[in-house]
Design brief:
Shape: globular
Helix content: 55-70%
CATH class of one domain: Mainly Alpha
Number of strands: 3
CATH superfamily of one domain: Tetratricopeptide repeat domain
Strand content: under 5%
Oligomer: single chain
Strand order of the largest sheet: 2-1-3
Mean pLDDT: 89
């Protein structure tokens, strides 16, 4: 690597590396403690200094050890990293319900990726142990079993779980306090898996001690909710089982309710069916013991309804009811090769023309290999191409140009206020937030303009034409002027996509239907192309699809609208599902209108929309979406033929 490339890489990695370094030092954490089992201290130092490329997966692992939500970053990854993530996701989806298929996928993964990181090895061993647990339960569920064989297989099961933990923790870790280590949620999950195996073979005391260590670690770490959601449902699941075994039904109930409340407030479905099922089991035990408290009866009714809702949702959309979840998030990650290919096409250039304009750098063939994901560009070449395509902001950085975790926390606070439509609270927090940012930086100026225009408009302090002007100004902070027909090839970052979607919405409402439709369609195509590899929606994709289906419905294109509703629902079932109720309701609207045209299918459509409307209603209740609940109650007579209240 020459001096020029080295300097560029330092600039490329300065955001992620600098942030991690500052947060590590602020908390007094040594290089050895954070890097143990994942990378060498030298490798860590190079990542923090920007002397080596920032790797998405390893970087996420290290940040999670610090308790930092990786959603705060928008980064690049190569095809190998994203392909590996997708292959692991496919295993997660079938490990509980299709164990034979999961075993086949595990074997394929082992052969496909010869060189694996410690966390990949840990993931594979974790999946293998889960498959062994299921086989163990099935083999010895009958009363007449071979005691010696059961003991032998039980020992093998526990050893497999121990090896999973040892992928990132040293020998003898059990004899130390977990606080001596810095642990990411997936590492804590491996320890819980070991505790589950110990419980399964009858070593309850050891299981309890191990569970307590993990529960204490999570409590003392004071993870913020976006990190806590990655581990606490699993802590609560085992906690409920152990407390029931010990006869502490109320403590078991407390574990279950804490996990449930976390899921509800974080719009999450991680292990939701597991939690609801075990919570019902706890409530049944409480009932058997004669504790007929009204509080428990009401909770049992609500939990039962929530469980039915999720089971029906998963059934209707052919989604697994029970699955594993990865802790690595890719909804904020762009693939290097695809990004460069899309930007080249957005500029209307062939690979040959790009090469001819930069004769000292890359040949057309090299450009094609980079775009195909078979070759990773050097730092110098990546910078050259991004500058040539007039793209800034995709340089492995935070959502804002800041190295302050406090500022990022406040941004999330404002976003949460906006989601809950608490506009006065959002405005109050925004006033101090904007003072902490350098608005001369394009990314920061974009964020300030976007938030300010949205909050003022919703508070009725901003006229529609001024709102639209501010949105366009915010978008121009990071996006060059492009013909609208080229927008489908622009790589929209999180805020860019949301801004463009809001612009289209305002244009439609002002009567510029064709222009709005063209923008929505271009945005939709751009995000669909970027999602092809991971099948996980980018955050802006929801905003865009919401606007697009509304536009299609307003112009009576119900079948097209419903087709897009179903597609995004299936995508969201693999991610956060805070907006699923809206898309279910949109299908209800389409079916209601189609009944008038297709009288012979009226009964079929009525049954379908009744099911979907009830799920929408219950999901809104589950996630404490008060405005949505009120709206659905108002629409109940139209879609159900009767009033309803929760």
């Amino acid at each position: 690597m020459n001096k020029e490339e080295l300097l560029w890489l330092r600039r490329y990695n300065q955001y992620c590396g600098k942030f991690m370094y500052k947060e590590r030092c602020r908390r007094g954490i040594s290089e050895q403690k954070i890097s143990r089992g994942v990378c060498t201290r030298t490798e860590l130092r190079k990542m923090e200094n920007g002397d080596t490329p920032w790797k998405k997966m390893i970087g996420d692992y290290l940040l999670q050890r610090l308790g930092v939500p990786t959603e705060y970053f928008e980064v690049m990854a190569d095809a190998r990293e994203l392909n590996g993530w997708r292959d692991r996701e496919d295993i997660c989806l079938v490990v509980f319900e299709q164990p034979q298929k999961a075993q086949q996928l595990l074997e394929v993964y082992q052969k496909k990726y010869r060189k694996k990181t410690p966390f990949e090895e840990q993931f594979l061993k974790k999946m293998q142990t889960i498959l062994m647990m299921q086989a163990y339960k099935k083999s010895f569920e009958s009363k007449s079993v071979d005691v010696e064989r059961e003991k032998s297989e039980g020992e093998n099961l526990v050893e497999s779980a121990r090896q999973t933990v040892l992928c990132t923790l040293p020998d003898g870790w059990e004899k130390k306090k977990l606080s001596k280590f810095l642990l990411a949620p997936c590492e804590l999950e491996s320890i819980l898996l070991l505790a589950n195996c110990l419980l399964l073979i009858g070593k309850t005391d050891e299981a309890m001690q191990m569970h307590k260590k993990v529960a204490d670690y999570v409590k003392q770490a004071k993870f913020e909710p976006k990190v806590q959601i990655l581990i606490y449902p699993q802590v609560a699941l085992l906690g409920m089982k152990l407390e029931l075994y010990a006869g502490n039904e109320e403590k078991a109930f407390s574990y279950g309710m804490e996990a449930l409340e976390l899921l509800r407030h974080q719009y999450s479905q991680r292990y939701v069916v597991f939690v609801l099922e075990e919570l019902l089991n706890v409530l049944e035990c409480i009932s058997v013991k004669g504790k007929e408290d009204q509080k428990y009866k009401e909770e049992e009714t609500e939990v039962t309804e929530f469980l039915k809702t999720f089971e029906e949702l998963y059934r209707l959309f052919s989604h697994p009811k029970k699955r594993m979840w990865q802790s690595i998030i890719v909804s904020n990650t762009h693939e290097i090769g695809l990004t460069l290919k899309m930007l080249r096409k957005a500029m209307g250039l062939s690979a040959a023309k790009v090469s001819a304009a930069n004769p000292d750098h890359l040949t057309a063939r090299q450009i094609e290999k980079i775009e195909a994901g078979t070759h990773r560009p050097s730092g110098r070449n990546y910078e050259m191409l991004m500058q040539f395509y007039h793209k800034t902001g995709l340089e492995g950085q935070l959502l804002l140009e800041t190295d302050s975790l406090e500022v990022l926390h406040q941004r999330q606070e404002i976003v949460d206020f906006i989601i809950r439509e608490e506009w006065d609270n959002a405005w109050e927090s925004f006033q101090s937030f904007k003072e902490k940012l350098d608005v001369n930086v394009p990314l920061n100026r974009q964020e300030v303009l976007f938030m300010e225009s949205n909050i003022l408009y919703k508070r009725e302090k901003l006229a529609s034409d001024e709102y639209l002007r501010m949105l366009k100004e915010a978008l121009s902070c990071t996006m060059p002027e492009l013909p609208l027909e080229k927008w489908n090839m622009w790589v929209f970052q999180r805020e860019e996509g949301s801004l463009a979607g809001n612009i289209a919405d305002k244009l439609e409402k002002s009567g510029e239907y064709e222009c709005a439709k063209q923008i929505y369609q271009a945005l939709y195509e751009s995000f669909e192309l970027q999602m092809k590899r991971t099948q996980i929606p980018y955050r802006g994709y929801v905003v865009i699809t919401t606007g697009l289906v509304n536009l299609l419905g307003d112009h009576k294109l119900y079948r097209q609208s419903m087709q897009k509703d179903k597609k995004i629902i299936k995508a969201l079932l693999n991610d956060t599902i805070e907006d699923v109720d809206f898309f279910l309701y949109d299908i209800c609207w389409g079916l209601y209108e189609l009944e008038k045209e297709e009288v012979d299918k009226k009964e079929e459509y009525q049954n379908w929309r009744r099911k979907l409307f009830l799920i929408s209603y219950q999901l809104a209740s589950f996630f404490y979406s008060e405005n949505s609940v009120k709206f659905y109650e108002e629409q109940a007579v139209k879609y159900l033929g009767e009033k309803m209240t929760l």
